[in-house]
């Protein structure tokens, strides 16, 4: 295996790791793992922008596309962490239970007012 093929396999492996990492429950419990992966993504994207993928010197679009794909993964991970943080700051279980009871009571009242509503 030459350097170009090895570099391509490593890059594809990094893209697969990006796709799998966001779905692992371990990463949600330890978000530093996702941050480390984002650091690697940024470093590889910078390397591709500066030096390019070995063996693809005649196709600069390949380097650009792989670099941008890694940047897209970084942005997606930042958004995912923000969603996790927002979910963690959402309502407590007691307030969710109270809200569910309010909705149930409102549905019962609506059903009593209009018995034609399917329930």
Description:
The protein has 119 residues and is mainly α. 78% of the residues lie in helices and 0% in strands. The protein has helices spanning 3-21, 25-29, 32-50, 60-88, 93-113. Helix 3 (32-50) runs antiparallel to helix 4.
Structural class: mainly alpha
Q: Assess the beta-strand content as a share of residues.
A: under 5%
Looking at the chains present, what oligomeric state does this protein adopt? single chain
Number of helices: 5
Shape: elongated
**Could you give a short account of the major beta sheet?**
none
Which regions are unreliable across 5 or more consecutive residues at pLDDT < 50? none
Portion of residues within helices: over 70%
Count every beta strand, where a strand is a DSSP E run of 2 or more residues: 0
Mean pLDDT: 87
Can you summarize this structure?
By secondary structure, the protein is mainly alpha-helical. The chain has five helices and no strands. The protein has helices at residues 3-21, 25-29, 32-50, 60-88, 93-113.
Outline the fold blueprint:
Elements: H1 3-21, H2 25-29, H3 32-50, H4 60-88, H5 93-113
Helix pairs in contact: 1-4, 3-4
Structure characteristics:
119 residues; mainly alpha; 5 helices; 78% helix; elongated
């Amino acid at each position: 295996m030459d350097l170009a093929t090895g570099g391509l396999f490593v890059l594809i492996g990094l893209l697969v790791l990006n796709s799998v990492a966001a779905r692992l429950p371990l990463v949600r419990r330890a978000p530093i793992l996702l941050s480390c992966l984002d650091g690697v993504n940024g470093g590889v994207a910078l390397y591709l922008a500066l030096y390019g993928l070995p063996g693809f010197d005649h196709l600069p679009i390949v380097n650009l596309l792989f670099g941008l794909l890694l940047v897209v993964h970084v942005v997606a991970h930042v958004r995912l962490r923000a969603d996790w943080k927002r979910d963690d700051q959402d309502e407590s279980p007691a307030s969710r239970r109270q809200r569910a009871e309010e909705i149930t009571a409102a549905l019962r009242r609506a059903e009593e007012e209009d018995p034609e509503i399917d329930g």
